[in-house]
Write a structure and sequence with these properties.
alpha+beta, four-stranded antiparallel sheet
Length: about 160
């Protein structure tokens, strides 16, 4: 694909990432306005809506650190976003790969916005089975996870073809 066509695709991918960010931030605003910290509202026998704050990364990694992790994760998210945008500019014609990067980009920036505004990430989706709870997460985390799965599928497709 020509470079100009690949570059024009980047705007489509960035628009999709922006949509992920907007949905993520809208849901977090709703949670922040409707829940007090620590509130739990059962929705189904396996699912609650909650309001928790994560000052760490995935699965609360580094949540107990002294505060430096906020700026570290903001910086890491911004660097990752820059790399992803560059990759979308050069590889935006590879649809599955671009979808994966776009979802990761939107999710990463959604969580960066939380860290910048609040000093923590707002999590609110709480799945549980038999009294054991999966760590609460949000729309941004879901987008990042789905993007990672798509990256793996894209790589498996490449290996099979190659």
């Amino acid at each position: 694909m020509a470079k100009s066509a690949a570059r024009s695709n980047v705007w489509i991918w960035l628009a999709i990432a922006l949509a992920v960010i907007l949905v993520d931030q809208l849901t977090k605003v709703l949670v922040l306005h409707s829940f007090q910290y620590g509130d739990v509202r059962p929705v189904a026998s396996f699912f609650n809506l909650v309001r928790v704050h994560n000052t760490g990364a995935a699965f609360s990694f580094l949540a107990g650190a002294s505060g430096w992790q906020r700026w570290f994760f903001i910086g890491l998210g911004l660097v990752a976003a820059g790399v992803i945008v560059w990759m979308l500019r050069t590889q935006g014609h590879q649809r599955l790969f671009a979808w994966a990067l776009t979802l990761i980009l939107g999710g990463a920036l959604g969580n960066v916005i939380d860290r910048a505004l609040h000093g923590y990430v707002v999590d609110f989706l709480d799945f549980h089975v038999g009294g054991r709870h999966f760590p609460a997460f949000n729309i941004a985390d879901s987008a990042i996870t789905l993007g990672a799965i798509l990256l793996i599928l894209d790589e498996l497709r490449r290996v099979r073809r190659g």
